[in-house]
Structures are given as C-alpha cells and as structure tokens.
C-alpha cells in the first residue's frame, strides 16, 4: 500500500453513508447518498449541442451515473422544456444535475448569470461551479440563490487542460474558501483530493477516461487538439483520492455509449472499493 | 508631466488614425476608427435583464459611446431578434458590440460556447473576452470562428473586483499571448496599459465611474456589496494609460442615463486629450 493511500485515510475510513450523514451541504449530502445507493461515482459530461441527443444519451447512461454534467450554453435548441425533461430523467434514475458554468465574473454579474437569463441555472441545477480568479466576491454573488434553494457550489481548484494557471494562489484560495464554508461549498473541481483529511469536501475530477495517459493502452498523446489531458479512473480515485470522476468524450463519443458508461462505472467503483480495502488492511 | 505619462509615450504620440491604420486585428481597427471619428472612448455596460430595456438604453446612449458591452446570459427574454435589433442600433450609431462572456473553460468547450448554443456569440459580437487561467488552449478554441469572422479577442489581464487573482502569472500569460498574436487578440482587459510601448494592444478598463474612489466627491467606499471597486475615467486614462473605459451602473443606474453618458464621455475624452497634450509638451 502506498503512502498516497494513507493520505486519504480519514475520508475513506468513513463510509459514504457516514460522510452523507455529516455533510453540511444539502446537495452534497444527496450526492453521497446516491453514490452509495447506486454504487457509482461516475459523472457523465453531456457535452452535446442538440437537446434531443442530450436527453436520449442521458436516458441511456442514467442507470450507471450519479451526476449529469451539462453546458447548457452550447445547446442550440435550449428551452425550459428541455430542463424539465432532463430533470424528470434525473429524478427517475436517482441522478443529480451539475451545470458546469465556471462562473468567472465579479459577484454582481455572477449573481445575475446564476439566477436570471434564459437558463435560470439556480432553479434546476443541484450543483454549479465557479473560478475564484475574480476574488471571493463571486461566491457572495452565488450565495443568495444557492442557500435559498439548497444548491451546492464547487470551486475550481485545478484544471485538466495543458498550461492551466489554476495553481498556486488560485488553488489555495479555492481550498481555503471550501474549507471555510462547507455548508455552501460542496467541494472542489481538482485532479485529486486537496484536503485529504476533510471528509466534508467532495472532490470531482474532469479529464478522466479509460484511455487516459496512464492507461496501458493509451495512445502516445491522450488528449485533444485544444490541450485537454486525460488520466484513468484508477489514477484519479486510487492515486489521487478524488470522489467523483467526470467522463465525457470517452462515453458520449463511443460507438456504444452504454457499454462505455458501464465500463467506466465499473472501473471507477472498483478503484474506490480497492482504495477502501487497502486502508482496511493498513 | 509625470513619469506615468512618459510610459505611454509611444502609443499616444501615434494618433488614433495611425494606430487604426496599423492595427492587425480587423475589429480593433474598426474600434480605433470609431473612437477617433466619434471622439468617444466610452464603452457602456448594458447589464440589464430585460431586452426592451437594453435596447431602449442602447438607443439613448449610442451617440456617446464606441462600444456596447453585453452579458447576454442575464437577458431573460433573449432571442436572435434582440441581437438583430441591437446590431441595427449599433450600425446606425457607429458602435461595436462586445459580449463580455469571460470564457474560462478548456478550449474545446469554449469553442462550442462561442460558436454554438442559443447565443451564437461569434456571429454577432465584434469582441469577446477570455480568462487565461485554463491555459492557452482557450485561445485556440476561440480562434477558428474569430479568424473566420474577423472578430477580436480580449484577454483578462486584471480585474476590478476585490481580492482578484488575475495577477502575477495570470496577468503575465495574458500579456504574453496578446503581444504574440495581435492579429487575433485585440488587447487586454486591465486597469491600465500593461504593454505601454505597444500601440497594437488595445486596453479596456472596467470598474470606472465618475464616483470612483479617486473622485473628490466619492463616498468612503465606492463599490458594491460584492467587491466591485471603481476609479474615475481620469485615473484610468491619464494615470494608467487605458484606451477604453467601461462604465455600467454609473450610467444605466443614473436618474438620467443620457446626461450620465454625456458626462462620462466628456470626462473620458478630455482625459485622453490631456494625456496627449502632456506628451506634446514633453
């Protein structure tokens, strides 16, 4: 057993039910319950531009995931009907919704972007996320609606893209804000657990694929032409201690998305269970 | 004359027409021509949530501004008809449009957010902007549509909000990318000129108001409850060397927006002319 596993000792000696019971953020609590109940720590990125395609993919993969991640501003035919249908699929299959908006403006603008406009994100998305580069005011902008509606905020503490500057003081501020306000801030978007001793902070990791750079079958450059970089679920969960892996193109771009979703669910859940087993042997 | 003015010597010894003639970015060239022709370096932030209100304010203030800045994702009744009407007002009054989207995702997602979705920002907005925290891939994501349509990108190099981390290496990367690719990147969003010797980089500054913190009539805390901070047009232009001042609530929140727009236009243009006059006396 490696020292990496030791780092996550505290969080992973608590069961998911124990973590849910003590989670101070209502959306985070529901997510931990779903992960435990459905035995899936897989989030699917529904990064398509057509609402019918998103809904049909969501229906197909819903049994294997805990979370639907959306970018509603790439949906060409967005409507509140689309949101209602996605919500219905999510409810039927015990899935939550995470609009990956990456708010990055001053607080007053972020507030309007979250609550108003065509999307009214706060009304339907259990989670959303924000960069902290504009300063802590962005959290204050999102706070009102998030607290009123029991939503969860995730702060970007690391990114999977090449040359990311979500590092150093940016990472530190995200971690500091998350540690300070777990009732509002569900956790962090990062490559792995940055607060390994804190069971209250849920970490979600993008850039995950079974064809990640640490995969035995990976192509020489496992990424895209715009600097995205991938690791496997095993690395993200066992080596880096993340809670939820976010998988997009490896599932929605697969010839058989259901088979790809099952494979990723199994790999991610096994990595979690192996990590717990390692700890119990310690 | 202060040493601050010396720093902008090169840019301000060129006339606006000379800067326009050598500007390698088509949208930037048009903007410099408009600033010169209309004698206004004022950008209005149309941060309202109702399209009729945005359009009526745009009509009122159009004669006094060079640029309409929008946040289309706060507009509750957004439609492509709204865009068409805003474009018509802009064309009639010699104004360009800047969708202040602050892209902050990986390149592939930013590409879709810029080109696709309900908004199709690339199709109608002469300028948009991006954070560089996700790494330089965001510029590559925006590049295709921007080059095809002759759009201008602005990179966030500084922000006016309290505790901003758009500083240090983040600022340096924005400056480096802008200096490297002036044909694609029109310039920077910053408190002042960060490349004072470079006439090709257009700087736009948010957080500007005649009631800014350096105003003789400023309230003790000239800002909002979400950490926004203000300086006067004079400070932004003369002391800090910016090209375009972005004014929002000081105009759209005024009892008489037209009077407020005229006052801000006059103050900003006089600051520019005084800055040039100082240089000619040098």
Helix content of chain A: 40-55%
Identify the most extensive interface between protein chains.
Answer: A-B, 52 and 53 residues
Strand order of the largest sheet of chain A: 1-2-3-4-5-6-7-8
Q: What is the C-level CATH assignment of chain A?
A: Alpha Beta
Pathway (chains A, B): Pyrimidine metabolism; UMP biosynthesis via de novo pathway; UMP from orotate: step 2/2
GO molecular function (chains A, B): orotate phosphoribosyltransferase activity; orotidine-5'-phosphate decarboxylase activity
Protein name (chains A, B): Orotidine 5'-phosphate decarboxylase
Catalytic activity (chains A, B): orotidine 5'-phosphate + H(+) = UMP + CO2
How would you portray this structure in words?
Two copies of one chain form a homodimer. Chain A is globular and about 50 Å long. Chain A has one domain (4-276): Aldolase class I (TIM Barrel, Alpha-Beta Barrel). In chain A, β1 (42-45), α5 and β2 form a beta-alpha-beta unit. With 282 residues, the first copy, chain A, is α/β, with parallel strands linked by helices. Chain A has helices at residues 3-7, 9-13, 16-22, 26-38, 51-61, 80-92, 107-115, 121-124, 137-149, 168-180, 233-239, 249-252, 257-281; strands at 42-45, 67-70, 96-103, 127-130, 152-156, 185-189, 202-205, 244-247. The first copy, chain A, has 13 helices and eight strands. At the A-B interface, α7, α9 and α10 of A face α7, α9 and α10 of B.
